[in-house]
Amino acid sequence: MNLNSIIKIICFYLLTVLFFLKIDNNEYRFIGSSLLYLFGLFLFKINLKFGLLFISIALLTTITEHIYIKHMKNTWTYKNPQIGKVPYWLLPLWGNGIIIISEIIKVLN
Hints:
Blueprint: H1 3-22, H2 26-43, H3 48-71, H4 90-108
Helix pairs in contact: 1-2, 1-4, 2-4, 3-4
């Protein structure tokens, strides 16, 4: 296992968590998590094709959350949703999660 890659993954994860702990404004969360997403693409040297794929998957996961919250009983809710039933910062947050997952897979292979 590459220790440098593991450290980068942990730091990127903690940066994302700390950002959301400190910032509670939805617009700032969207802007900041979008910038974190772009930083993650740069940090992990992810090319544009995969960057677009990851954000497309993030869009699908965000839409799926909206569907679950709106149409299924006994699911979770967000306190301040802006688009349907989900906050718009959820899209880049899912993107960051996908980056982390893809980097963990690389380390484990």
